[in-house]
Protein: Neuropathy target esterase-like protein
Organism: Callorhinchus milii
Amino acid sequence: QRLGASALDSIHEYRLSGWLVQQEDIHRIVLYQTDYTMTPWTQRCVRQADCILIVGLGDQEPALGELEQMLENTAVRALKQLILLHKEDSPSPARTVEWLNMRSWCSGHLHIRCPRRIFSRRSLVKLKEMYEKVFQKTVDRHSDFSRLARVLTGNTIALVLGGGGARGCSHVGVMKAMEEAGIPIDIVGGTSIGSFIGALYAEERSAVRTKQRAREWAKAMNSVFKTVLDLTYPITSMLSGSAFNTSIAEVFEEKQIEDLWIPYFNVTTDITASAMRVHKDGSLWRYVRASMSLSGSLPPLCDPKDGHLLMDGGYINNLPADIAKTLGAKTVIAIDVGSQDETDLSNYGDSLSGWWLLWKRLNPWAEKVKVPDMSEIQSRLAYVSCVRQLEVVKGSAYCEYIRPPIDRFKTMDFGKFDEIYDVGFQHGKVVFGGWSRGDIIDKMLKDRKSLDFSESKERNASLGGNAAFTDLAEIVSRIDPPKSYHLTDAEESDYLTEYEDEAMDAMRGEEEEGQEPEGAEWNQDPVFEPEEERNVRKRTSLKASEESLSQSDT
């Protein structure tokens, strides 16, 4: 409408290019919509873009379209993201792996749950009327479209949940308080119990449903009967892991990480390669189970991809806020539920009998002995190995560190789920209430880059809104002439060089002998005699000596 119907003609190439460049200078983000085929306009859009969004319908077959095939064969360096659209009442995403396998050139993907108006066909007039009403409503910061906007503008908010056994039940309470405070979550990650709770939330997107499913699982974990049946000969571990595997698999079934509504990752310790592993794809229940495998209690899980042995991620990174930052998060909310230092443990000497401890615990009249059990020791080891990394995370500018008061609960207190949940919820209400009264939440949701872009435009306007390139060059290259300074007597330094020190010593010596220094003697001193005068004097003396020699010869 602005450039006319013939704007795309080759004769107007310069005019169109200039107008597009002008739009990119005026606006921070310019959205290009391509045609359905590789037309000249589509080629221009692909050439101009820094990020290409491949939009598809999640309930359709993941076949490559004509435009995608051409794009795959074209050398385009722009970042490519797969966006899958789903209806509001559609089930959880599925077959995302097939979409990604056919588009290996995509660097990532997002699932978008869309309102019904997205899939309805209306005339242009009715569309304008409908969206005028939509724009009058308050923006839903929790919607998937808002998440997409934050991802594209670099303003994502990540939630990272630390490991700590049953103390991790407080994660659910904190997440409920976050929802009530209106804080959106764009990325979820965690370690150990944090990986389990985070996976539930990434699948449900609701703290209420997450609480229901987590409580059911915690109840099963508190079953002594299942634990006894899973005991095995303790060569690798005390438990075979079969019962624990079943409990995790029943929660997540055969869901893949790629099928979660919210982008998700978890951390495990690869004892085969002695390295940290970050899992962003693959079997969900297997990697959650691997991230929760405490040494001595459960055997390592064999990675279905390469067969490496994976253990609890708490041994290498118990609060992976730094991983969330590397994945593009602007702000990371990290919840720590790991073990804390205890200095009131009993001194039992050089050896410890389990039978003696059992008698102390069963005898009501015996003196109580405070000694950590095997699960507590494993949890403490995981926390100790990550102390330095935790201090770095707590001191970073991008991280908002939260620790609920859950130190009185033990690693295996899954039977106290509701009590631990309430502690996390009440603590979260206090913390996020303070954030709401301050400006922390506003800073999280504010697009800082847009503000910087606006400020830079204002600075450029201060140079002159219509300044030409030559005017700008003149401003930048304007150099003040050098200034010459003449020292006054008051500005001269009292500092003497080594030569002046020697002269002063000579003067003092003559004064002590009662002799006045003469100016001729100063001039005869080779130190203070200028080089030109010294050369003239040498030539004069040489000439005089030659004349005397010639006279003597005669």
Notes: The mean pLDDT is 82. The first strand starts at residue 51 and ends at 57. The CA atoms of residues 237 and 299 lie 5 Å apart.
